[in-house]
Amino acid sequence: MKNILIVDDDTEVARSLANLFDSERYRFYFLEDGPRMVEFLNEHKDVDAALLDVNLPTVSGLDILKKCKDNDINVPIIMISGRVSTANAMEAMREGAFEYLAKPFEIQKLIDTVNKACVHRTQKSKAIKDDAETQPLVLDEIIGTSPEIVEIAKLIGQVAKSDAAVLIFGESGTGKELVARAIHRNSRRRNKPCLSVNCAALAETLLESELFGHEKGAFTGAYYKRLGKFEQANGGTIFLDEIADMSTMTQSKLLRVLQEKKIERVGGNDSIDVDVRIVAATNKSLVQCMKEGSFRVDLFYRLKVVSIYMPPLRERKGDIPLLVDHFITKYSEKVGKEIRGISADAIKMLAKYPWPGNIRELENNVQTACVMSKDDTLHSDDFPIHTEVDSKIEINLDTLQDDYIDIFSKIIEPVLPKLINNSEGKIYYFLESALEKALIAACLKYFGSNQVKTSEMLGISRNTLRDRISRYSIY
């Protein structure tokens, strides 16, 4: 039998969580607040895993997590939260949480996570602490509460503590450099430089000199010795943007840095030791580049120790209001206006636009809207894109939606009493997840299990599709 501790001030929620598990296989302990958690776990050595609420009445669950780690508590702790927060997710993972889950829970994912934590309990050894654990979290401008962004925040929290190379994928304008800087600023290297190089912006010879430096007289115009970015960033992090545009010759030199931690300046013969963490990014398919022979396979696997996919804005439109609020705060003062918000019609318009330029394009639009606004609220016609949003699309979608509303109403009305009796006030989340599972399963079947075609037709990323297939056990 597995023993699970739940620390949550809402006893009803805690009991309902326990009821999701088989009583013959799991036994539960309950605490309504966090200060006694360390003492309790020291007294009850049989606890296999713990569920700890972030928002406790007296002390933050994150502070309790840190206290557990400071007292060498080896029980896997799963942080749970009723309010989705990238800051909490990132900090929880950085501080050693086993997982971070937001309410309302997907039942199967919760059960699977607890089971994995129990297995991990028997294998866990004491982790080596470093000074990054006691430092305040730095998020830069990573904004959003969508599942994709929360997962990215959790991943940043996990990888920041290590020196592993990170490869960030995603379209231009999705925020890849923000992720790279968040990794650096939450790592043990945060007091050292974090330098960026755009590999697509420089010719091959200039890029090589930019990265590795050159000796005096190495080429025409080299009137003095110059330190490259690797020497300048020694002890810190270097962010290589658009890595797919790096020449194969420069790639081979970068591979040596990863393998041997050494560089040679252009025109020099001496090997120079460097200690730099590499974070790379690309908006191209490196797999396709390798097939074409323009990118080295060995370098790819050296860079891709950890990979992070940044979804385009069209796949996380629920984050648009938060992003808009952030950019209004950023630019309203700069343009000398006191802008308090954005109209509902304008938000609706922004949600309909496909955002090919992603967050960068949204930011530029908000900046322009702040300049053009005539009062303290941004309206649709303040945004440059308002003439590009085709109102006919809305009419067609509304007509189509009415057809499906009629179909869904006929399905839901007969079973509504049963749903009310069995769903414990969670009808919305129950139906939402049920419909999502049914829709994905039907599309996979229709397209012969072709995930590429299915994700395209659903309008979601391959990563999101894989996550849902795993979450709902769709086979």
Descriptive tags:
19 helices, 47% helix, alpha/beta, 475 residues, Rossmann fold, globular, Helicase, Ruva Protein, domain 3, 4 domains
Topology summary:
Blueprint: E1 2-7, H1 11-18, E2 26-31, H2 37-43, E3 49-53, H3 61-70, E4 77-81, H4 86-94, E5 99-102, H5 107-123, H6 147-159, E6 166-170, H7 176-185, E7 194-198, H8 204-212, H9 229-232, E8 237-241, H10 248-260, E9 262-263, E10 272-273, E11 277-282, H11 286-292, H12 297-303, E12 306-310, H13 320-332, E13 341-342, H14 344-352, H15 358-372, E14 377-378, H16 391-422, H17 427-446, H18 451-458, H19 462-471
Please give a structural write-up.
With 475 residues, the chain is α/β, with parallel strands linked by helices. It folds into 4 domains: 2-134, Rossmann fold, CATH 3.40.50; 162-311, P-loop containing nucleotide triphosphate hydrolases (Rossmann fold, 3-Layer(aba) Sandwich); 318-387, Helicase, Ruva Protein, domain 3 (Orthogonal Bundle); 423-471, Orthogonal Bundle (Arc Repressor Mutant, subunit A), CATH 1.10.10.60. Helices cover 47% and strands 13% of the residues. It has helices at residues 11-18, 37-43, 61-70, 86-94, 107-123, 147-159, 176-185, 204-212, 229-232, 248-260, 286-292, 297-303, 320-332, 344-352, 358-372, 391-422, 427-446, 451-458, 462-471, and strands spanning 2-7, 26-31, 49-53, 77-81, 99-102, 166-170, 194-198, 237-241, 262-263, 272-273, 277-282, 306-310, 341-342, 377-378. The strands form 4 sheets. A 5-stranded parallel β-sheet has the order 2-1-3-4-5, with helices on both faces. Strand 4, helix 4 and strand 5 form a beta-alpha-beta unit. It starts with a strand and ends with a helix. Mean pLDDT is 86; it is low at 125-134 and 390-399.
